[in-house]
Amino acid sequence: MRRSCYPSDMTNAEWALIEPLLPVPACETPKGGRPEQHPRRETVDAIRYVVDTGCKWRALPRDFPPWKTCYGFMARWAAAGVVGQIRDQLRRQVRRQMGRAPRAVATVIDSQSVRAAETVGKDSRGYDAAKKVNGRKRHLVVDTHGLLLFVMVTPADVTDRDAAKQVLFRLRLMHPEITIVWADSAYGG
Q1: Which of 6, 93, 149, 161 is most buried, judged by most C-beta within 10 A?
Q2: Among 112, 188, 186, 117, residue whose Cα is nearest residue 154
Q3: pTM surpassing 0.85?
Q4: Which residues contact 128 (CB under 8 A, 6 or more apart)?
Q5: What is the per-residue pLDDT across 74-88, written as a single tens digit (0 to 9) for each?
């Protein structure tokens, strides 16, 4: 096992929370598969490193498993919904520790326009005249403690009201227990 040396590396307590939430390795399933060559903790640390630093996968430091391996796990886990399940399970644990019900029934929605790099395609960015930003807009839904429930990214020229239709539809499918959503006047209509 490699030595922890990056701020994004997990502590033993964090790994104890995450490890049981990961899918069973393919070699341990009835269908079978090859044994994994690298410890999962190192793979998760590499994924966290890329998310934390924003570096390219190919620029992953050599003390992590190969970038193709780490990217492959991240892509498979994201496509299978594992990342969302981990997020939801950790949020439920945090809410229980706060003495709250594990599932939120009240939420807050808001958006933020952010500048996009010139390398971002014009089809996925727009101009938000109110904020004078050419880029993208992220729409966030959080519970009343600020714990993330849902994120959707749109071009910045999409109004909050129009984006809310999609956000709230998807939110209802993922979290049917939600009964109230607070929003500012930009979501009116």
Answers
A1: 149
A2: 112
A3: no
A4: 113, 134, 135, 137, 156, 157
A5: 999 999 999 888 888
